Amino acid sequence: RRFTAEDLFAFANINLDHLTETYNLAFYLQYLAKWPEYFEVAETPSGRFMGYIMGKAEGENENWHGHVTALTVAPEYRRIGLAHHLMNELEEISEHKHNGYFVDLFVRVTNILAITMYKKFGYSVYRRVIGYYSGMEDAFDMRKALPRDVDKRSVVPLDHPVYPEDLECN
């Protein structure tokens, strides 16, 4: 279901995971106001949060794409396909509502489990971003082409790393 402002007070069980990037309240509210269709939550029948995804549409021309800002699933609900379901939802929105060329995301180069999962979902490493995480840890920019990118040019890997200030969309 769609995320609501009240949900910001109920997702602590998910955000406590050390691999989950957390943001300030204003950041979440900005996403919710600008890109509500990209903010989804999965919950149990009793209302307990299982996971969520938040993203946005950004870029210009052939760089117009969907971006995964955060995807996280509570540890007790992992390995049941929930992350795949949430990613599919974001990809569908990026393709059908925003007519994007690709979907991208950033992941810590040390997060092997997530990298492996994203590769299973069809993502590939497009480039390495030096010092992306607070200047301390590198990230992989991973991408998956959408049908609009017929020649799959958006996912041809760069042969050199970049720095955060070199990114087209921040």
From TrEMBL:
The keyword Ubl conjugation does not apply. It holds the Pfam family Acetyltransf_1. PROSITE patterns: GNAT (PS51186). SUPFAM superfamilies: Acyl-CoA N-acyltransferases (Nat) (SSF55729). One of its GO terms (molecular function) is protein-N-terminal amino-acid acetyltransferase activity. It comes from the Eukaryota. GO terms for cellular component: NatB complex. This is N-acetyltransferase domain-containing protein.
